[in-house]
Amino acid sequence: MFSDREGAARRLAEALVQYRGQNPLVLAIPRGAVPMAKIIADELGGEVDVVLVRKLRAPGNPEFAIGSVDESGWTYLGDYAGRVGGSSEYIEAEKEAQLKVMRERRASYTPIRPPHDPAGRIVIVVDDGLATGSTMIAALHALRAKSPKKLICAVPVAPPDTLEKVKPYADEVVCLSAPAMFYAVGQFYQSFPQVSDEEVIKLLVTAS
Length: 208
What we know:
Elements: H1 5-15, E1 25-28, H2 34-44, E2 47-50, E3 53-58, E4 61-70, E5 75-77, H3 88-109, E6 122-126, H4 134-144, E7 150-157, H5 160-166, E8 172-177, H6 197-207
């Protein structure tokens, strides 16, 4: 159990201490992970930014991910997508809806500069926890194409089977807790409030 995202971030920074002084690029999956990535980047002496990916929502159940999409349009689908009603037509429409959200977020999150270039750098991708792992997989896939020196997935908590799905996409996976009984990320936090777009923008502006 983590007290809140700040507490989880500080524990992750301790687990990543070997990268201190190597100017790592710490990339958050918005929105919840952005305050965490800022703390980790400060602790390790790195830079912070966002990697934009979006889950593809199951028909009639927007909290459940059937897959994910990155800014380039590359799509990852869970092997169960079709069984929960994810037809090709539905997936294409959902993909376009999420690409629109990402274009809007990129315009508001980093309006005066391009995203930091991960090429040749140690890149640490942070989320506040993994459930299906689909957005993390999309993030790691997108970043691998940009030739980082090392690509690391760092999360406080995830179920064991999700970690196995994620491992092929990263050079290293750092996870503080992998409980077998897993229902939702929020169950492992005493305080787990929503993070607003305004908070994300403020953090990224002060970090620039």
